[in-house]
């Protein structure tokens, strides 16, 4: 279903008339009728979040959850990730105590495996990350069980590895639109980071929290978390440290996006300014802690915030000329998706399709399973004229995205 059809479905399930639901979100009945019929799009994510709140459903319920259907040899491992995260053993360490002496495993191979997962994520290989996550999460849980009594250094390292694992899970799941699972993983990441006694681990895990809150439509909470984490990091570490500076700047970028999604232009501009100064101090496009932070990433986030604020022309004009070759594949492709969405909003569907196909060639799974891509392609396919307007390339992309 389209977003409008989902709104109509949940509205009827709640027993609300179009007039009542429209009134709850401060809109006219005619506006809602056009949205439900697919004649009008809801482009502002904050307004979509208001509709979801009025219907008492999640933002993800209205956006629709994608189906991860990778190549046959990889399979669909999101259910396995869910099983790993929702194991009853994680509910209580008292009720489900570990063996008295769980085996101590070498931390270094685990750390290397987690960092390999992060490398795959940044290369846009989402299917490979999802396939690896169940095993990584299981190992992280074993490390948590083995940490007590294994020596302080080992304990801190074990908790840090668990935090990084669950952060990877949260960020990956948020890309797939699995908002609730992403939140569970983010909470586990921050709990583990609390035990790691490492400010950088905790600041990094806070990024996972902002990702999950954004997917859940809890924009004010995302702003508060980002501001709190960045203020805490600032007093904890010397800002001359490139890693700390990168995390500090990246927290401001994620918080700026959250502010933009709740249509707080002044706060978004202020936060982007702080990030820009941090990037200037860093002086280059780095990738400390897989942040990809630097002047270029600030510009990409500025355009992402502009899209959420409705500055579509700015995104199209500046987004197509910005040089993003220094960025990780995931960041470059996410930017292209933003540009494609902006082109679509300007009814330049042919250009939007070309941009999406270029992005797909670089990171197929990232594009095909991105919730925003699926909605954009679905709308493009539905509004294209039946005769001569629906190109085979568009229909093929829609099929690959499971949008039709």
TrEMBL record:
GO cellular component: cytosol
GO molecular function: DNA binding; DNA-binding transcription factor activity
Pfam family of the protein (one): HTH_31
Keyword DNA-binding annotated: yes
Domain of life where this protein originates: Bacteria
Keywords carried by this UniProt record: DNA-binding
Protein name: Helix-turn-helix domain protein
Organism expressing this protein natively: Pseudofrankia inefficax (strain DSM 45817 / CECT 9037 / DDB 130130 / EuI1c)
């Amino acid at each position: 279903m389209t977003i409008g059809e989902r709104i109509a479905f949940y509205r009827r399930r709640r027993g609300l008339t179009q007039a009542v639901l429209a009134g709850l979100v401060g809109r006219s009945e005619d506006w809602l009728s056009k949205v439900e019929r697919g004649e009008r799009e809801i482009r502002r994510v904050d307004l979509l979040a208001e509709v979801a709140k009025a219907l008492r459903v999640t933002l993800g319920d209205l956006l629709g959850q994608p189906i991860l259907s990778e190549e046959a040899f990889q399979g669909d491992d999101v259910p396995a990730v869910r099983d790993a995260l929702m194991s009853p053993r994680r509910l209580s360490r008292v009720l489900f105590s570990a063996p008295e002496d769980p085996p101590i495993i070498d931390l270094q191979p685990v750390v290397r495996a987690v960092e390999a997962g992060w490398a795959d994520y940044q290369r846009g290989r989402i299917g490979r990350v999802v396939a690896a996550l169940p095993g990584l999460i299981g190992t992280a849980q074993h490390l948590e069980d083995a940490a007590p009594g294994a020596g302080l250094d080992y304990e801190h390292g074990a908790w840090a590895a668990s935090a990084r694992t669950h952060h990877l899970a949260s960020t990956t799941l948020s890309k797939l639109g699995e908002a609730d699972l992403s939140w569970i993983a983010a909470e586990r990441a921050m709990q583990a980071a609390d035990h790691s006694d490492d400010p950088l681990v905790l600041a990094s895990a806070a990024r996972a929290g902002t990702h999950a809150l954004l997917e859940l439509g809890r924009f004010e909470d995302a702003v508060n978390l980002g501001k709190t984490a960045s203020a805490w990091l600032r007093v904890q570490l010397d800002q001359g440290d490139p890693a700390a500076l990168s995390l500090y700047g990246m927290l401001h970028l994620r918080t700026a996006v959250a502010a933009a999604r709740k249509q707080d232009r002044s706060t978004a501009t202020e936060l982007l300014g702080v990030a820009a100064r941090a990037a200037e101090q860093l002086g280059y496009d780095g990738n400390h802690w897989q942040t990809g932070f630097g002047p270029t990433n600030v510009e990409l986030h500025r355009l992402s915030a502009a899209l959420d604020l409705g500055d579509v022309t700015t995104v199209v004009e500046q987004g197509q000329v910005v040089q993003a070759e220094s960025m990780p594949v995931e960041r470059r492709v996410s930017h292209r998706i933003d540009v494609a969405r902006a082109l679509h909003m300007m009814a330049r569907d042919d250009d939007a399709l070309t941009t999406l196909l270029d992005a797909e060639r670089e990171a197929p799974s990232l594009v095909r399973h991105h919730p925003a891509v699926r909605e954009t392609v679905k709308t493009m396919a539905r509004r294209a004229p039946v005769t001569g307007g629906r190109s085979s390339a568009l229909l093929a992309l829609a099929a690959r995205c499971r949008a039709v």
